[in-house]
């Protein structure tokens, strides 16, 4: 680019931006491949299923309030379980949920570079 007459400060800035883009891309790849605290997942799974199993064996009179409470607590625990899985891997390629981080900017940038 310097041979084409581009000022050296622009070339240096472009190289810095390329390095930052590489660094961020590698960070995303590292986050995707890292499994965060597998023992914490086992603990969370055991807690969720343990609490739900214990609530199933509680003696109730069959009142609608107790069924509502059981359903609400079960929903909270199961949702927290799903939320932990979603937070662990935010950069899905398959777009499995609405909570995934969109990578459309990188795709658009790749299209522009190929043109």
Structure write-up:
With 115 residues, the chain is mostly helical. The protein has 2 domains: 1-34; 37-114, no CATH class. It is built from 4 helices and no strands.
Question: Could you provide a short overview of the structure?
Answer:
The protein is mainly alpha-helical and 115 residues long.
List keywords for this structure.
2 domains; mainly alpha; rod-shaped
SSE topology sketch:
Blueprint: H1 8-33, H2 38-56, H3 64-88, H4 104-114
Helix pairs in contact: 2-3
Helix content: over 70%
The rounded distance between the terminal residues' Cα atoms is 18 Å
Query: Which class best fits the helix and strand makeup?
Result: mainly alpha
Structural domains: how many:
2
Number of continuous helical runs: 4
Uncertain residue ranges = none
Mean pLDDT: 79
- Cα-based radius of gyration, to the nearest Å: 24 Å
Oligomeric state of the chains present here: single chain
Report the sheet-strand fraction: under 5%
Described by the principal axes of the CA atoms, the overall outline is rod-shaped
Main pleated sheet: none
The total strand number stands at: 0
- Element pattern in H and E: HHHH
